[in-house]
Structure formats: structure tokens, C-alpha cells
């Protein structure tokens, strides 16, 4: 019976680590979204003065925003799979 408890404890530890990883991924996605917002605001400002830098910033902002959305969706999918595995 001790091996079952040990295996259960090991599984609980793995689930806890996975949940912590999902939380960290969500935090990175949130920070990426803020960076995209900042880059968008800079691009709008730069575009207002017809700067080529503004065009580059706008493209970078769109890319960062897309990556943040993908990371957030992947994290949600991971959390859902984790919950299914636990149940």
C-alpha cells in the first residue's frame, strides 16, 4: 500500500508543478500583452509623425500580441487537459 501512496504523492507533486508552470505561462502572456499595447501606442505616435520606425513598431506590436494570444490559449488548453487528467 505504501507504493500506492507514494505514487499518488508523486502524481500530486507532478500536477502541482504543472499547475505552477501554467500560472507562470499565464503571467508571461499577460506581460506580453502589455508589451504589445505599449508597442502599439508607440507605433501610433510614431506613425502620427510619419516615421518609418512607427511602421516597424506596429508590425512588432501585432506579432507580440499574436504570440501572447497563442500562449494564453495554449495555457488554457494545458490547464483543461491537466484537469481532465486529474479527474
Would you kindly provide a written description of the structure presented here, covering whatever features stand out?
With 87 residues, the chain is an all-alpha fold. Helix content is 94%, strand content 0%. The longest helix is centred in the N-terminal third of the chain and has 47 residues, at 2-48. It is rod-shaped and about 60 Å long. The chain starts with a helix and ends with a helix. The mean pLDDT is 77.
Topology, element by element:
Blueprint: H1 2-48, H2 52-86
What are the main properties of this structure?
87 residues; 2 helices; 94% helix; 0% strand; rod-shaped
Unreliable stretches, pLDDT < 50, 5 or more residues? none
User: What is the rounded Rg?
Assistant: 20 Å
Shape annotation: rod-shaped
β-strand amount: under 5%
Structure at a glance:
With 87 residues, the protein is mostly helical. It is built from two helices and no strands.
Amino acid at each position: 500500500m505504501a507504493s500506492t501512496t507514494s505514487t499518488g504523492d508523486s502524481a500530486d507533486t507532478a500536477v502541482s508543478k504543472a499547475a505552477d508552470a501554467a500560472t507562470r505561462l499565464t503571467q508571461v502572456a499577460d506581460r506580453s500583452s502589455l508589451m504589445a499595447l505599449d508597442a502599439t501606442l508607440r507605433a501610433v505616435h510614431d506613425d502620427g509623425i510619419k516615421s518609418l520606425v512607427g511602421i516597424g513598431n506596429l508590425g512588432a506590436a501585432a506579432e507580440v500580441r499574436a504570440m501572447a494570444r497563442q500562449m494564453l490559449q495554449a495555457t488554457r488548453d494545458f490547464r483543461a487537459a491537466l484537469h481532465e487528467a486529474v479527474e
